[in-house]
Specification:
This protein is an alpha+beta fold and 203 residues long. It has two domains: 86 residues, no CATH class; 102 residues, no CATH class. It has four helices and six strands. Strand 2 and strand 3 form a beta hairpin. It is elongated, with a radius of gyration of 24 Å.
Amino acid sequence: MYKFKFFIDFEKEEKWLEQMANDGYHLQNILFGYQFQKGVPETATIKMDFRKFNKKEDFIDYCTMFEDSGWKHLAGTKSSGFQYFKKIDDTAGDEIFSDNHSKAARYKRVANMFFESAISFIPLLVVFYLTDIMNFKALINPKELYFTPGLWDKTGASFWFSFLFETPFALMRGLAWSFVPLAIISYLFFGYKSNQLYLQNNK
């Protein structure tokens, strides 16, 4: 079973995954959403971290360290960032972090990832502007999305036929042109929210 949800708050996501396990749905993968396998309901303790690795060996060592401490790696890859663990040893503690600072630091790493993603789109936005690939005026004036000559001077049936015919193409242009600006805004917003959670949890 697949579920599509989006979280910024790790603790809310952990509680949701624990509730899913309690309902008999166990996390298997996080590729294009959450993939669950139906099984026996259980009271699970699930925790998350955010780490990326350049080398596969470092990622394996990271997972092994947690398994030796009583935590099974459920989902995440060396480059996905988000890592999911389930407690499998009753003698292990209920946290995978040694202190609040380490626990809060994962939000800082996520914030940095969002900010870096936003910055990476800015050169592309500049190129689109300089080469006229994007019509930035259309973001303010939607009429710029319509290319039919003299469309706005037409009247009656002639106007409505031309308008309705081109509207689907205008919408596609609008979505394509707004993708990069919206991506930058979204990354900055999520980066800000993650940084706020870092500050709240690092007290």
